[in-house]
Amino acid sequence: MKLICPVCEKEVEVEPANTVRKVNVRGEIFEVPVKLYRCLECGYDQIEDHEDPQDEIDIAFREYRKKHNMLQPEEIKSIRKKYGLTQQELAKILGISPATLSRYENGGLQEIAHDRLLQFIAEPKNMYTLVEKNKNLLSEDRIKELKNKILEVMENTDRYESLERKHNASSEKYRGNKAFSFDFFEKVVLYVINKVEALGNVVTKTKLNKLMFYIDFLSYKELGHSITGAVYVKLPYGPVPDGFQTALELMEENGSINIAEIYPQEGDAVTYIIHSSKPVYDINLNEAEKKIIDSVVANLGTKKASELSKISHEELAYIQTQEKRKIDYGLAEFLKMRLSD
Ligand SMILES: [Zn+2]
């Protein structure tokens, strides 16, 4: 590739020169890998690609928060959003300034005391108590709405947990040797949607089912474990993660995705288009797992849902399973889809 070399003062051919920069965060040094390039004419190796800016402070803050078990900016935002509050309202309830909260949500490094407060209210029953004690801070109507919202969040937490129990009650051969966690499943789903959307393609519900099936089963075949631990069931239009409808509803309610109903033509069945409402950070996937997801997305992400249905119907894992029964991950070894380079 070509970039501008500040030493040669012109556009030159460059090669990657990955380096680390030391960043001091509250007295601790973090070594942040940065993507830089080397000029092939003069050897200068600090060339930045301005199309792909490297925010090392941001990366170092993320590392710092991870090390100290602090919330990341998007987590702070998502706690506020799950209670349906504006920044002003939440700041009032917490007794901090709205500007401070806004700064935290946008990547500023939070005070440790504020972080603990935010983690405390992430638990809905704590939030309920705090709101109850400070009900004079917002209007009576708003407090009533907020309390209802908190109760709804509590109910949803029960639904996550029952979904997790449902998957984990199955034996390992139906989960692909992995435990199912809703949080992680949600992150993987978001990661996949973001990847497909980045390719300029639309994700429908049917398409997402199939992509998840291939990701988990291909991972089992290649690595000996599924990625999400989800159980898949054979339905007429293909393999589907068990309880997928509930999972999508929960994801929509907590603001991770939005689902649009499209009626392609008079008389056609409704199509559900799923959009991601947030980026995914800090997803706990290793390189081999990311490669599997990338490969499935590259191979199948651009295909139409009807083509994917057809492809999945030809898999032995599908053919050999009875209607509405769980699909055995052991059948993954016969997958027709291969890992691409
Ligand atoms: Zn140069």
Description:
The chain has helices spanning 56-67, 73-82, 87-94, 98-105, 112-122, 124-133, 140-168, 172-175, 182-198, 205-223, 244-253, 287-300, 305-313, 316-319, and strands at residues 2-5, 10-16, 19-25, 28-34, 37-39, 232-235, 238-241, 257-262, 271-276. The protein has 341 residues and is an alpha+beta fold. It folds into three domains: 2-67, Ubiquitin-like (UB roll); 73-161, 434 Repressor (Amino-terminal Domain) (Orthogonal Bundle); 172-334, no CATH class. The strands form four sheets. It has a three-stranded antiparallel β-sheet with strand order 1-2-5, with no helix packed on it. The mean pLDDT is 92. Zinc ion (ZN) is lined by residues 5, 7-8, 12, 39, 41-42, 44.
Summarize it.
It contains 14 helices and 9 strands.
Helical fraction: 40-55%
What is the terminal separation in angstroms? Answer: 21 Å
Q: Residue ranges: pLDDT <50 for 5 or more in a row?
A: none
Average pLDDT figure: 92
Bound compounds: zinc ion
Query: Over the alpha carbons, how many angstroms does the gyration radius reach?
Result: 23 Å
Structural class: alpha+beta
Biggest β-sheet: count, sense, barrel? 3 strands, antiparallel
Number of spatially distinct domains? 3
| Secondary-structure element string | EEEEEHHHHHHHHHHEEHEEHHH
Residues in β-strands, percent: 5-15%
Strand order of the largest sheet: 1-2-5
Count of alpha and pi helical runs: 14
For the secondary structure, the number of strands is 9
Shape: globular
